[in-house]
Design brief:
26 strands, Neuraminidase, four-stranded antiparallel sheet, 323 residues, mainly beta
Length: 323
């Protein structure tokens, strides 16, 4: 599993007007088999507005699968059909494509969606890929536990200029002396403009959040958090970060200053493309709501998710190619 799964990373997804939706056939299906199942809260699609929402649905992260929701039409399509215990661990979607950490073989592998099917990402390394709107991809390759020498003795952030290119290492982190080396570095998200990569690094119970450019240079430092962030979302308004402790989730500005605090125990999921609306979830991931910068003390609750807990979400202006 990816580093954020091991640290209880959480994100969320979204909703549709109908309780029952038509699921598309699996990637290995002929297209004849279709199944109807309740997935999302009633009325949420209308509240969310425009764009395409990609969701990682599942009561446990290791058994989750990907869904696509077209908010304009209400159309819902299931993208992966992994069996229990072999689910999709994480994903990232943009208007250039969708990449995922896919554990269908029993071990997480970095894949990219091509013509509706997961295909191996060039290079075959890493398990938590992130893609921006230009098609650039980053992923972390972890040091092997106990190794302190050789090219893989440190966790590395890998960069692909595009899906067909070869990767190169742009940042190296020191392995932890307290935890498994695979717990040291995590790539979390691209910035809204696609020019910076949000990363987390920590040798013990604390993790520092910072941003790098595509050459691996640290260009911004945000905050140090206890434990691993419990949900995060980087939008045009700011970087929303959730905590493992009882502290309120916060939205940080470019300098790391707190712009707002989310009310109650809500944790961040994903911003809409305009950066004006943040999809949030309860800590158990079973209920979702909408938070806006204009009403920082209020969350509009959308309801309980009948289709399983929501592990992650990406919200794009239009569908990602390959999905």
């Amino acid at each position: 599993m990816r580093a954020s799964d091991r640290r209880l990373g959480v994100t969320v997804a979204v909703a549709c007007t109908a309780l029952a939706v038509l699921a598309a056939c699996s990637s290995g299906d002929s297209g004849a088999h279709r199944a109807v199942r309740p997935v999302l809260p009633v009325g949420a699609t209308g509240a969310l507005g425009k764009g395409t929402l990609y969701l990682l649905l599942g009561d446990v992260a290791i058994s989750a699968n990907l869904w696509r929701v077209d908010l304009g039409t209400g159309r819902v399509q299931q993208l992966t059909f992994n069996p229990p215990q072999y689910g999709v661990s994480n994903f990232s979607a943009s208007t250039a494509g969708l990449v995922l950490g896919n554990a269908r073989s029993g071990v997480d592998e970095a894949d990219i969606m091509v013509e509706g099917k997961p295909r191996p990402l060039s290079g075959g390394v890493g398990d938590s890929p992130q893609i921006n709107s230009a098609g650039q991809i980053v992923d972390v390759a972890f040091a092997e536990q106990g190794v302190r020498h050789g090219p893989w003795s440190r966790d590395r952030l890998l960069y692909w200029a595009n899906r067909a290119s070869r990767y190169r290492a742009i940042y190296r982190a020191q392995p932890s002396n307290y935890l498994a080396p695979s717990s040291t570095l995590a790539d979390l998200a691209w910035s809204p403009t696609g020019t910076m990569i949000l990363a987390a690094e920590g040798p013990d119970a604390y993790n520092r959040l910072f941003a790098l450019d595509s050459r691996g240079r640290v260009v911004r430092r945000f905050v140090t958090v206890p434990g691993f962030p419990r949900g995060w979302a980087w939008g045009r308004y700011g970087l929303a970060v959730g905590y493992q402790t009882g502290r309120h989730s916060v939205v940080l500005g470019a300098t790391g200053r707190v712009l707002a605090r989310l009310p109650g125990k809500w944790i961040p999921g994903c911003w809409n493309p305009a950066g004006t609306m943040l999809l949030v979830a309860t800590p158990d991931r079973e209920r979702i709501g909408i938070w806006t910068p204009g009403s920082p003390g209020h969350v509009r609750e959308l309801g309980r998710l009948p289709g399983g807990a929501l592990q992650e979400c990406s919200w794009t202006a239009r569908p990602a190619p390959g999905t």
